[in-house]
Amino acid sequence: MEIKIGIAKMKKYAVEECGDSVEVAERPRGGISAILADGQGSGKAAKITSSLVINKAAALIADGARDGAVARAVHDYLYAIKDGKVSSTLTLLSADLDTQTVVFSRNSNCPVIVKHQFGMDIYDEEISSIGVHKRMKPLMYQIPLEMGMLLVSYTDGIQAAGRKRGKVMNFGMIEKIISENHAEDATFIAESILEYALALDDYRPGDDMTVVVMGISDKERVHNIQKMSVSFPC
Question: Fewer CB near the terminus (10 Å): N or C of the chain?
Answer without folding.
Answer: C
